[in-house]
Design goal:
The complex is a heterotrimer of chains A (372), B (307) and C (524). Chain B contains twelve helices and no strands. With 307 residues, chain B is mainly alpha-helical. Chain B has a domain of 194 residues: MetI-like (MetI-like fold). The radius of gyration of chain B is 24 Å and the shape is globular. Chain C has two domains: 217 residues, Dipeptide-binding Protein, Domain 1 (Dipeptide-binding Protein, domain 1, Alpha-Beta Complex); 223 residues, Dipeptide-binding Protein, Domain 3 (Dipeptide-binding Protein, domain 3), CATH 3.10.105. Chain C starts with a helix and ends in a 22-residue tail after the last strand. Chain C: It is found in: Periplasm.
């Protein structure tokens, strides 16, 4: 009789191998997996390679459009100098551009404090400023400074931070949120559903009634309350969101558990004195893995979208961290003027959700070809 | 069947009671209150306000009096919109949201079905991929991006429709909000329909019928529709409950005077009575549509019985 | 296509109840938020003020440039001790139902405002009236309030002490008269369209929440002959990006707010239709001044020195705000704001001083200073906090940001919750420095900083005592502000400016520091 119990995993494995074969035959799903992996790697490693930190503010480059060439553009240097001169409260006598360094002469009616070079230090467009000569009366100063080159491939945001770096950092957060909330939902849903379905009877009734009650609660209200309570910590918040999303999972798993419980081999195992917990773990849970995997891949994009909705309401992750939802919500407010703020994060978000959806479809077809 | 309906309605009462209780206390432990604002109130004025709105009583007593009023159908006045009772706000806003939601649902069912059938008939060909991609796009681009883009293209550039506003319910004002609401739903319906249609095409008796030269496309479509009916019904129930009660994004961006925005605004404003109103309304809609779904199931599939 | 278009427009016109016949002059006025209430005693926001200013008329009102003009009172006298105001009401002031507006109406209204049973948020504003606070806190009966009707057309107010800004206060909607007969008849429903009896240039005919409020010209208004508009539709424009699109499409004639993040582009696109100018409001950070280490004014100063307000104003707010170094914004006649001493020094002088303070206090790599900024949800508040975080970083100050929804934010401050720095904003109710300085007084409900400075309190008391001598009073107030600014009871960051968009079709829209634009002076 122990044969019977042991034979299940073997059969199960062949099911998984079968599924794997079907999944790899699905071109859309394979492309999606590759894309998602690439996206994951890009978000993890990318921020280290962009040359910008995601919090660094480039004061001279607030809301600049994306460009393949470096900032400052040749025609911008003059304007930037003018602005610095204005803040230094001196007059610009002359300036010229030679060998990547700019030299300029400034004059004032009062002796000039040599600390003015700090304005060039502070500025994001200049670097390595030096006082070349000072006139005897201290009223005229000659300075030289290098021009600092910066690339903003996706442009910058409303406070002058590199959008590419922020989009990648946002990807980390969004994907983490999706996985975290998805996992929470699955864990709670599986345990709850399996317990209810396996125990059956009155306990099942009560447990499912609780699910019904939670179903009828306005989801937005619940989420807003959770954000209000856990707003300070996004990990906590999305565990909480996951804790709200488990209801469907619980129903699916319960259904599976109910039917598995009636199977002869489970009855046999029971008769042999295997503990209910053991049966749950050995038979019920593994048998629900298929639908769970499918549900999870479809839940992750849902959670990412939900996060973007919360961001639209201003309840997203705390600055200076960011997420695709936060970036897109901000971008949507900026159209039609700074379109890049919307376009780039949207491409990242939408393509990722696309891939997750195709992967989910593929998994569904692979794991349960009869099921739609 | 009448007995079944009655029993379901009776079991809804404890559900509603639990929901009301849960929400009431959840709301009250949230930080801030209806009178927290940029311009702080002096303690004297705050005390007066709390007395006028009976927020100075112990929480359990407030809860009991709220329950009592609720039993009489009295949702109380809104805290942040004291000119209106919660019932007033729903009387004005709910018809608007229901109109929009219903249009969106019908739109989604019709367009989604057509797209799904077309995709299935051209399975694994260009049209199919295009439909699937379009459907997926519809459900992956956030509403708050779609809505302003719609305004930009159709209202400002082409000037075919107004940018926003309800316009007393004029058709041109409804197109944008209804489409925006329907878009993610179209995607779901199209997927369901496509699946049903593919299965119908594969079904043995259809294949036999077609092999015998008896089957026409209309037979296939009819069969597919029947097959898709159950999943679509079970999708449409919760979807209707959600759509008919409005959407905060669509209503805010299109300046629509519906109730969708109350679900968010009231919670953020700690407008206790209005939040409770929204909670009750949602719960009633969900319970109602669940019941309708179950009844429809039995109607469509004779094997399902009330037990 | 043009036929299709006109067809659509025709459908729109037919379907829109709010649009009357073509000959009428209609002003579609965008208003950032719907009023919470139309009961003058239950309102508090500027969005309500815009509407109520059109519907009601107080003893005194504001003209198109926000200067004080006679309202229901055609003239008034002040007793030599500055405590008693006697208003002579105009004979032709009538309610929209034809009844005359009498001194008794004002007696009823002022008592209703202070009656604790009304729960009026602005009751505290008129605590300057004798027994005002006592009535509002239930220590005195409403009849004991320092007001009386001398005769049908003479209204007398007795103040607690001379208050030079009392007349300015009366322009606030909380001081408008309400109609006793209709309140008694309709109860809470008296403000509903059809029931509402008012005495302003317009009357209320429709109010659909989140859709529109329709006002029509009141033919019984005493200056009805000068009112050019037939209809004013107040349209709530919660979503600023939508509002600007509606304006562009001609659905709105003006809007009182702009998506400031797009300001530069909007200026390019709409030119002088974009109206920008100083507005009596201050954007500040409250500091928990009774908590270590922030109880040290030197440390507070160091933080304030480092913050580059020019960057905030020019880049983050796209010049829709101005750098602020005083609590009271410029623009109040007779008052020169007391700016911080570093207002005119260069940013690097400020930074050097800040560095020195931080070193003296022992902060450095081994002992980093930690600072938490709380702000309420808003794109611009977020960007401001983020910029400040980055400005403080090079000085080894570790800033963390906490963003909460508005109710949580102010609920936390109200409850005197723990924080370091918290975002606040203050918009003047009336044109007087008192409005800005009063919030830092020890007993104020808005003293989120828990600022408690004896010198400041004394100077404020002295200013109040000097009420009869406006020049001396302003001097004392400026001295008080100097203390507040030096001690950093609050940290002013930016002065607000109004940013509106106004169609060239509108005539009579005048820029002013209160951003007050009564529809009765506007024509289209």
């Amino acid at each position: 009789m122990t044969e019977l119990v042991l034979s299940r995993p073997v059969k199960g494995r062949s099911l998984w191998i079968d599924a794997w074969r079907r999944l790899t035959a699905n071109r859309a799903a394979v492309v999606s997996v590759v894309y998602l992996l690439l996206m994951g790697v890009a978000c993890l490693v990318g921020p280290l390679l962009t040359g910008h930190h995601y919090t660094t503010i480039y004061t001279d480059y607030v809301r600049v459009p994306p460009s393949l060439t470096a900032y400052p553009k040749p025609d911008q240097i003059s304007g930037m100098l003018d602005e610095l001169i204005r803040r230094m409260r001196v007059d610009l006598v002359a300036w010229n551009d030679q060998d990547d360094r700019i030299s300029l002469t400034i004059r004032s009616s009062r002796p000039i404090d040599p600390r003015v070079v700090r304005y060039f230090d502070r500025s994001s467009s200049f670097a390595d400023p030096k006082v070349e000569t000072t006139s005897p009366d201290g009223l005229t100063l000659t300075l030289s400074t290098a021009v600092a080159k910066h690339y903003f491939l996706f442009g910058t945001d409303n406070t002058g931070r590199d959008l590419l770096t922020r989009t990648l950092i946002a990807g980390r957060v969004s994907l983490a949120i999706g996985l975290l909330a998805g996992l929470t939902a699955v864990v709670i849903g599986v345990i709850y559903g399996a317990t209810a379905g396996y125990l059956g009877g009155r306990i099942d009734d009560i447990m499912m009634r609780i699910v019904d009650v939670l179903y009828s609660l306005p989801f937005i209200f619940l989420v807003i309350m959770l954000v209000v309570f856990f707003g300070r910590n996004f990990v906590l918040m999305f565990i909480a969101v996951g804790a709200v999303q488990w209801l469907d999972m619980a129903r699916i798993v319960r259904g599976q558990a109910l039917s598995i419980r009636r199977q002869e081999y489970v009855q046999a195992a029971l008769a042999l004195g295997v503990s209910p917990l053991g049966i749950l773990w050995r038979h019920v849970v593994p048998n629900t893995l298929g639908p769970v995997a499918v549900y999870m891949t479809l839940l992750v994009p849902q959670v990412i979208l939900l996060e973007s909705f919360l961001s639209y309401l201003g309840l997203g992750v705390q600055e200076p961290l960011t997420s695709w939802g936060v970036l897109i919500a901000q971008g949507a407010k900026n159209i039609p003027s700074a379109t890049w703020l919307l376009i780039f994060p949207s491409i990242f978000l939408t393509s990722t959700l696309f891939a997750l959806n195709f992967l989910g479809d593929g998994l569904r077809d692979a794991l349960d070809p009869k099921d739609r | 069947m009448l007995r079944y309906v009655l029993r379901r309605l009776l079991t809804a009462i404890p559900t509603l009671f639990l929901i009301v209780t849960l929400s009431f206390f959840l709301l009250r432990v949230a930080p801030g209150g209806p009178f927290s604002q940029e311009r702080g109130l002096s303690p004297e004025v705050r005390a007066n306000l709390e007395r006028v709105y009976q927020l100075d009583a112990p929480l359990w007593r407030q809860y009991l009096s709220y329950l009592g009023n609720l039993l009489h159908g009295d949702f109380g006045p809104s805290y942040n919109l004291p000119d209106f009772t919660v019932a007033d706000l729903f009387r004005v806003g709910l018809p608007v949201s229901v109109q929009l939601g219903a249009s969106a649902l019908v739109l989604a069912l019709i367009l989604g079905s057509i797209l799904g059938i077309v995709a299935a008939l051209r399975q694994n060909r260009g049209v199919d991929y295009a439909v699937v991609a379009l459907a997926t796009a519809g459900s992956t681009i956030p509403t708050f991006v779609i809505a302003p883009l719609y305004q930009l293209v159709f209202a400002l550039t082409l000037a075919w429709v107004p940018v926003a506003g309800w316009g007393g319910g004029a058709l041109v004002n409804k197109i944008g909000p209804a489409l925006t609401l329907a878009l993610p739903q179209i995607a779901i319906v199209a997927r369901l329909m496509r699946g049903a249609m593919i299965e119908a095409l594969r079904a043995n008796h259809i294949r036999t019928a077609r092999a015998l030269g008896l089957g026409s496309w209309s037979v296939v479509v009819k069969h597919a529709l029947r097959g898709a009916l159950l999943p679509i019904i079970s999708y449409a129930g919760p979807a209707a409950a959600a759509l008919l009660t409005g959407s905060v994004v669509v209503e805010t961006v299109f300046a629509i005077p519906g109730v969708g925005r109350y679900f968010v605004d009231a919670a953020l404003n700690r407008d206790y009575t209005l939040v409770m109103g929204t909670v009750v309304v949602i719960a009633v809609f969900v319970i109602m549509f669940n019941l309708i779904v179950d009844l429809l199931y039995a109607l469509v599939d004779p094997r399902v019985r009330y037990d | 296509m043009s036929r299709f278009r006109s067809l659509l427009i025709a459908t729109l016109l037919l379907g829109t109840a709010a649009l009357p016949a073509a000959a009428e002059s209609i002003y579609n006025r965008g208003n950032s938020a719907d009023p919470e209430s139309l009961d003058p005693h239950k309102t508090s926001t500027v969005y309500e003020a815009h509407i109520l200013r059109d519907v009601f008329e107080g003893l005194v009102m504001q003209n198109a440039t926000s200067d004080l003009i006679p309202g229901v009172a055609e003239s008034w006298t002040v007793s030599p001790d500055g405590k008693t105001y006697t208003f002579k009401l105009r004979p032709d002031a009538v309610w929209s139902n034809g009844d005359p507006v009498t001194a008794e109406d004002f007696v009823y209204s002022f008592r209703r405002l202070e009656d604790p049973a009304t729960g009026a948020e602005y009751a505290s504003m008129l605590y300057v009236i004798k027994n005002g606070e006592e009535v509002n806190t239930g220590k005195a009966k409403p009849e004991e309030l320092g007001i009386r009707a001398v005769d049908a057309k003479t209204f007398e107010v007795t103040l607690k002490s001379p208050t030079p800004y009392f007349l300015e206060m009366l322009t606030h909607q909380a001081a408008y008269p309400v109609n006793k007969a209709s309140i008694e008849k309709f109860g809470a429903d008296w403000i509903k369209p059809g029931n509402l009896v008012s005495n302003g240039a317009f009357t209320l005919t429709e109010f659909i929440p989140n859709d529109h409020i329709k006002l029509v010209k009141n033919p019984k208004f005493h200056a009805a002959g000068e009112v050019k508009l037939d209809v004013v539709n107040y349209i709530p424009t919660e979503d600023r990006s939508t509002a600007i699109k509606r304006y562009e499409a001609g659905e709105l004639d003006s809007n009182d707010d702009l998506p400031t993040e797009q300001l530069a582009d909007l200026k390019k696109k709409f030119g002088d239709q974009v109206k920008l100018g100083p507005y009596l409001g201050t954007y500040y950070y409250a500091i928990k001044t009774d908590k270590a280490p922030w109880n040290n004014p030197k440390l507070r100063r160091a933080i304030s020195l480092i913050i580059d307000r020019d960057f905030l104003a020019e880049k983050v707010w796209q010049n829709s705000m101005l750098p602020a170094y005083s609590m009271v914004p410029p623009g109040i006649d007779g008052y020169t704001p007391a700016e911080a001493d570093y207002a005119k020094t260069s940013q690097f002088d400020r930074e050097d001083e800040a560095k020195k303070i931080l070193t003296d206090l022992g902060y450095g790599p081994g002992k980093p200073l930690k600072l938490e900024i709380r702000y309420n949800t808003s794109e611009n508040h977020k960007n401001t906090a983020v910029a400040i975080q980055e400005q403080l970083k090079p000085f080894g100050i570790e800033v963390s940001l906490i963003n909460t929804d508005t109710k949580t934010h102010y609920g936390h401050l109200e409850q005197k919750g723990d924080y370091d720095y918290a975002r606040g904003g203050w918009i003047a109710d009336y044109k007087d420095p008192e409005s800005f300085l009063g919030i830092s007084r020890k007993a104020s409900g808005n003293n989120y900083s828990n600022f408690d400075n004896a010198g400041f309190e004394t100077l404020m008391d002295e200013a109040a005592a000097a009420g009869a001598d406006p020049a001396a009073r302003m001097k004392k107030l400026a001295e008080a502000e100097k203390v507040l600014v030096d001690e950093l009871g609050n940290m002013p960051l930016l002065y607000y400016s109004y940013h509106e968009i106004v169609s060239p079709k509108l005539k009579g829209w005048e820029p002013n520091v209160m951003a007050v634009h009564p529809s009765r002076f506007i024509s289209k």
